[in-house]
Each structure stands twice: as structure tokens, then as C-alpha cells.
Amino acid sequence: MKKIYLFVMLALATTTTVFFTSCEKDDDKNDEKNYEKSELIIGTWILMKNKEFNPETGKSYIEDYSNETNKDKYEFTKENTIIWEDEESGEKEIVNYKIDGDKLIITYGEGEDIQTIKTLTKDKLVLEYMLHYEEEDNYGNTISSYDVISTDYYERGK
Description:
Layout: H1 2-40, E1 43-54, E2 59-64, E3 72-76, E4 81-86, E5 92-100, E6 103-108, E7 111-120, E8 124-136, E9 142-156
Antiparallel strand pairs: 1-2, 1-3, 1-9, 3-4, 4-5, 5-6, 6-7, 7-8, 8-9
């Protein structure tokens, strides 16, 4: 009886040690991934293309900015701010951001946007997010509304 009790206690101790060690390593890996993304995203990114997909209709719309001379620039800083600049108008806006896993969370004023980081390398950034559109008649009444999945493709600025 004593041997069975000792065996059960040893098995329980081993299982508990493996469980907590595994969780700790997973947490460390997630922290490393967030750190890597936080470091990789710093710098200037130029919007090259936007694709909108409407799941209801199955149709896509693509805007290609690669041949335009004045492109939107987004500078991600170490202080967790994004400085957006429209080269054509000279307009600038500053917002805050943080990275949580594969989510880029952008806060501005009272609002917040959450975008999914689909790709992040030293030269390429792809973000995906939902957009909601409402069409109104001349009197301001909503005549239709729909959601689209929007994907932005960026290249590292020089």
C-alpha cells in the first residue's frame, strides 16, 4: 500500500513540474514574439496597396498605390506612437499603439481600432481589419449597411 501511495505522489509531482515548466516556456515564447514584433514594427512604413473583400457578395476591390508619387507614410516609434503623414496634403496625425500577440491595437481620442498582424518582416507589413459601411439617402437615412474585410499592404520606407 505504501508503494502505491509513493508511486501516485511521485507521478503527481512529476506531472505538476512538467505542467508548470511547459506553461512558463510558452509564456516566455509569447513574450519573445511580442518583443520581436514590437522591435520589427519600429520605423517608417509606406502603404502600397489596400484590398477590401465583401464576404456577403464575394467581391473584392483593390487599390494599388505603388505607382503614386505621394503615398501615406506611417512611422511607428519606440514610444508606441504612430505618426501618419499624407505627403500630398502635408496633413499629420499622431495616435498611440500597442501590440498584443498578433493584434495591433491603435488608440486615438476616445476610440480604438484592432487590426490583425498577418505578416511582419523587416521589409513587409500586412494588416487586416473589419470595416463597416453605411450608405445613406439624401435625407441621412441609412439605406444599406455592410461589413468588409480590409487588408493593407505596406513596405518599409527608406
